[in-house]
Amino acid sequence: MNEELQQKASPWKRRFLILCVLTIALPAFIGMVMLRRFGSDVAVDYASPVEHFKYGSTGGEHEMGFPYWIWRALPEVCPQYLPGKGYQSLGMVYEKNPDGSDRDVPVGTSMRRFQGIDRVFVNCAACHVSTVRTAADKPATIVLGMPAATFNMKGFEEFFFRCAADPKFSKEYILPEIERQGGDLDLLDRYVVYPIAIAIMRDRVLALAGRFDWVFKQREWGPGRVDTFNSAKVIFNFPMSHLDPKEFDAPADFPSIWRQRQRKEPKEMQLHWDGNNTTVEERNKSAAFGTGTTPPTIDLARIRRVEDWIMDAQPPAFSDFFAIDRSIAAQGAPIYQKYCADCHGVSGSDFTGKYVGTVEPLARIGTDRRRLDSYTYTLAVNQATLYAGYPWRFTHFQKTHGYANMPLDGLWLRAPYLHNGSVPSLRDLLEPAAKRPKTFYRGYDLYDPVKVGFVSNVAAADGKKFFRLDTSVPGNGNGGHEGKAYGTELSPAEKTALVEFLKTF
Ligand code: HEC
Ligand code: HEC
Predict the structure, then answer these.
(1) Quick one: which of 27, 133, 251, 447 is 20 to 30 A from 42 by CA?
(2) What φ, ψ does residue 295 adopt, rounded to 5°?
(3) How many CA within 13 A on the CB side of residue 453?
(4) Which has the closest alpha carbon to 370: 422, 408, 405?
(5) Spatial separation of the C-alpha atoms in residues 385 and 388, rounded to whole Å
(6) What is the Cα–Cα distance from 239 to 391, expressed in whole angstroms?
(7) How remote is the CA of residue 372 from the centroid of ligand 2, in Å?
């Protein structure tokens, strides 16, 4: 009897077990595999703060990240929208692998595995790192924290907008290119993940292109510049076509971001070109928007590492690259002390000075007003709503009426000069506006140690075409910062001495 029962029960038992496996265990197992694969949110981290600055995440990959292999494939899929080969042609900086080839992603991009796919997006270093060369046939030195003088931001945005609108932005063209480059996608990636990712990315970039179509209507910024606060207006969904045209065409030079501590201690300076914010941390979070982050996606812990590092990061000395004539520089020191030190501070004394970190009214400084006018009261009010409900809600943005008197640390690497980068060299800045170059080229990393600035009279080199900046174009005006107080009336010998002294900063 027992045996009989057992014989009857056991097939049922087996069936029950199979059913359990099919309905519970197997889905749970698949679920776990999927979760492991698609539920991940892991940024690639670097122990060294320097590597973190170059390649670490600020959180932008969450919303904006390009799937790694799509990022790699696009320059080959849409070469017609790039000025040359690869992202290099947009002036992005690549480090070398030990075998001499370029690293797979440029300085200023970070990676994160999110929702089952490796994603790439830009970080702070995209706009705050560049290269400098002492001779045309010498290798470039990568300098962290200097303005990204070769990076063409507008070209970068337009490349993705145009490529996404191109019929070739499809799995039929992108997948074979990924394969050609050695992207060894597994079956799930090839048939499910990447085809979906391509479709999603295309939709997202096109939607963004629709919002940013204002960018296409702007005059070229050229390398090293971005229209900072008009870009911010787009993020706030301002009705761009209804704004006062005088707010537009406001390209701003990328600034250097080393030595932030002196901008915070002993007193907080008014910073950004127009001095619209006084706190370093808020500026950093605001800057993080430039890296695609939003209040829910910002990676505060990792941004904190960048903040900590730029506090005391130092610019490289001019004298590590070129000679300085110390006796001539010594003649320049008292001239600087007399004319410039109150507004710009003195090197060696942490750049303190009576007016350093305050705003010089436009009526007195007289430089191009577009950047100032682009930052409006309405925008300031909108920024004050950012991070509402968080302890780090923005509270320090304000509308100002001039440009900030800033420390001149690492000055030699900050060319071209003024907030719109409209004056190619220090020597040119000491001339009255009428005698400054009316047009010049931006984007070359070859340095001119005599005029103190990048070589700006060459239209092309190394297969790269440079950007011709025309100072008569709105937003590019090279006037202002002139008159006795600004050194433009000094004798030629005094100017030479002053420039030599400025090399020591
Ligand atoms: C898209 C390019 C871009 C990216 C990316 C970017 N910045 Fe900037 N940054 C700028 C520009 C342009 C300004 C000057 C803004 C202005 O006043 O018009 C600036 C200004 C700053 C300043 C103020 C400098 C001064 O002396 O006034 C700091 C500090 C800064 N950025 C830090 C960062 C940090 C930290 C990140 C990353 C979280 C970052 N930036 C990402 C372009 C960028
Ligand atoms: C009354 C204050 C004041 C005085 C005096 C002054 N400057 Fe300036 N300087 C400014 C302001 C404000 C700016 C920013 C203007 C802009 O970008 O539109 C500036 C910008 C600069 C820049 C460009 C910095 C950059 O990163 O592009 C340099 C270089 C400079 N000044 C050098 C000097 C020298 C040298 C002297 C003395 C001969 C001098 N300044 C005197 C206020 C002053």
Answers:
(1) 27
(2) -45, -45
(3) 24
(4) 422
(5) 5
(6) 29
(7) 16
For ligand 1, whether the C-beta of 127 sits within 6 Å is yes
Q: Classify 121 in phi/psi space as left (phi over 0), alpha (psi -120 to 50) or beta.
A: beta
Ligand 1 atom 38 nearest Cα: 288
CA within 13 Å, CB half, 84: 14
Lookup result for tokens 């980068």: 421
421-449 pLDDT tens trace: 999 999 999 999 999 999 999 999 999 99
429, two tokens: 């800045």
Residue found by looking up tokens 């050695």 in the block: 182
Q: How remote is the CA of residue 17 from the centroid of ligand 2, in Å? A: 80
Which residue in 114, 116, 107 sits closest to 55, CA to CA? 107
Q: Which ligand is nearest to the CA of 475?
A: 2
My answer on whether omega of the bond before 492 falls inside 30° of 0, hence cis, is no
Nearest CA to ligand 2 atom 10: 405
Q: What is the mean pLDDT of residues 12-33?
A: 82
Torsion of CA 305, 414, 274, 345, to 10 degrees: 90
CA 109 to chain centre: 10
Mutate to test the pocket of ligand 2, among 128, 253, 343 (most ligand atoms within 8 A of CB): 343
Select from 55, 58, 127, 398 the residue to mutate for testing ligand 1; criterion: most ligand atoms less than 8 Å from CB: 127
CA gap 131, 92 in Å, rounded:
10
Tens-digit pLDDT profile for residues 225-283:
999 999 889 888 898 888 899 999 999 999 999 999 999 988 889 989 999 998 877 77
For residue 144, give the nearest of 253, 223, 263, 53 by alpha carbon: 53
Alpha carbon of 414 to ligand 1 centroid (Å): 14
Which residues contact residue 296 at a Cβ distance below 8 angstroms, ignoring those fewer than 6 apart?
none
Q: Quick check: CB of 340 below 6 Å from ligand 2?
A: yes
CA–centroid distance, residue 255 to ligand 1 (Å): 7
Choose the residue to mutate in 270, 337, 344, 400 for probing ligand 2, maximizing ligand atoms within 8 Å of C-beta. 344
**Residue 202 Cβ contacting ligand 2 at under 6 Å:** no
| Rounded distance between C-alpha atoms, residue 418 and residue 323, angstroms | 25
Q: What's the rounded Cα separation, in Å, for the pair 164 and 157?
A: 11
Q: Are 83 and 17 in contact (CB under 8 A)?
A: no
Q: How far apart are CA 436 and CA 425, in angstroms?
A: 9
Q: Output the six-digit token pair for 256.
A: 């250097």
